[in-house]
Design goal:
The protein has 74 residues and is an all-alpha fold. Helix content is 68%, strand content 0%. It has helices at 3-9, 27-47, 51-68, 70-73.
């Protein structure tokens, strides 16, 4: 594991630390928030011609977006 990855995983706000900011949110609301964040990351990757990374982030965006709107389809 890279030193940078260890640093990120052990940083404040990583899983298991701090208050649970999603405690009062529905899964659909959390998925919508994730979709927004991933879309920003995808756009950054596209601007720097990181094509494969942009593709993976696009797939993540699509999944999160679909999950965020699943209660609206019913």
């Amino acid at each position: 594991m890279s030193a940078r990855r260890k640093e990120v995983e052990n940083s404040p706000g990583s899983a298991g630390e701090g208050p649970d900011l999603t405690a009062e949110k529905t899964p659909e609301e959390v998925a919508g928030y994730i979709a927004d964040m991933v879309l920003q990351l995808r756009n950054m990757a596209k601007q720097k011609d990181l094509d494969f990374l942009a593709y993976l982030l696009e797939m993540s965006f699509q999944e999160a977006f679909d999950l965020s709107s699943r209660d609206k389809k019913d």
